[in-house]
Specification:
Low-confidence stretches: 1-19
Number of domains: 2
Number of strands: 0
Distance between the termini: 98 Å
Strand content: under 5%
Mean pLDDT: 81
Shape: elongated
Largest sheet: none
Structural class: mainly alpha
C-alpha cells in the first residue's frame, strides 16, 4: 500500500487575511516621530529602542511600515544625541564658570577668528579716512545735499582695503561680498538704533544717520576683517 505524503496545511490565519489586516502599520503617515512609535517625547533611550523593536517585530511583513518605524527611530536618536551634546556643552561652561575660567561660546570663537587687529599705523590711517568721510557726509547734508557720494566712496574704499590686505591672490568678488555684508549690517543697525536711543540731533535726517552707521560698519570690515 502506497503511503501518500500529506501536504502541509495552509496557514489558516494567512488564508483568512489575518496577516494582511493586522500587520499593516497604522501610523505610517504620522509626522511626529514620537507619536509614530507610540511613546512620549520624554521617553528614555531604552524605551525608544524597546518601542522600535516591538513595532518592527509586529509589523515585519509591512515594508512601508518598517521603513516608517526605522525613520522615526533614527530621527529621535539624532535629536537625543544633539540634545545630549548641548547639555554637555552647558555643563562644561558651568564648570568653567565655577572654576573662574573664561568661557566663550564656540560661535563667538569662530566669529573672532574672522577678525584681527592691524598695526597701530594702519588702524589710525583708516580711522582718519573714514572720519573724514563721515564729516564730509554731515557737511554735505547740512548744505541740503545727500550723503550718497560719500557712501559710494566709503564702499569702494572698503573693497580696496580688503583686496590690498589679502594680496593679489584674493578674489575681488569675495571682497565685494564682504563690503555688501558690512553695508547691510550698517543699514540694519542704523535703522534700529536711533529709534530706541535717539542721541542724534533732530536736524540729522534718517539718510545721514544710516550713512554714518554704514560707514562705521565699512570701517570695521575694511580694518579688522581678515
Amino acid at each position: 500500500m502506497d503511503v501518500v505524503a500529506e501536504e502541509p496545511a495552509a496557514d489558516a490565519d494567512a488564508a483568512d487575511g489575518f496577516w494582511e489586516k493586522d500587520q499593516i502599520f497604522p501610523r505610517v503617515k504620522e509626522r511626529d516621530a514620537y507619536r509614530r512609535l507610540g511613546i512620549s517625547d520624554e521617553a528614555s533611550f531604552e524605551e525608544v529602542q524597546d518601542a522600535r523593536n516591538y513595532l518592527v517585530q509586529t509589523y515585519a511583513r509591512h515594508t512601508a511600515g518598517v521603513e516608517a518605524i526605522e525613520e522615526a527611530f533614527d530621527r529621535i536618536i539624532k535629536q537625543k544625541l544633539t540634545a545630549r551634546k548641548k547639555t554637555r556643552g552647558l555643563r562644561a561652561a558651568m564648570r568653567k564658570q565655577k572654576a573662574g575660567e573664561d568661557y566663550t561660546p564656540p560661535f563667538l570663537d569662530r566669529l573672532k577668528a574672522q577678525f584681527e587687529r592691524p598695526d597701530d599705523t594702519t588702524l589710525m590711517r583708516r580711522a582718519l579716512i573714514y572720519a573724514i568721510m563721515m564729516g564730509w557726509a554731515v557737511v554735505a547734508t547740512g548744505n541740503g545735499g545727500q550723503p550718497t557720494f560719500q557712501m559710494f566712496i566709503s564702499f569702494a574704499l572698503c573693497v580696496y582695503f580688503l583686496k590690498d590686505k589679502r594680496g593679489e591672490a584674493a578674489e575681488l568678488g569675495k571682497c565685494f561680498i564682504n563690503a555688501f555684508v558690512a553695508l547691510a549690517i550698517g543699514f540694519l543697525v542704523g535703522s534700529v538704533f536711533p529709534v530706541y536711543i535717539p542721541v542724534f540731533p533732530p536736524s540729522w535726517g534718517p539718510e545721514l544717520v544710516l550713512s554714518l552707521f554704514t560707514m562705521v560698519s565699512l570701517f570695521v570690515f575694511a580694518t579688522f576683517l581678515k
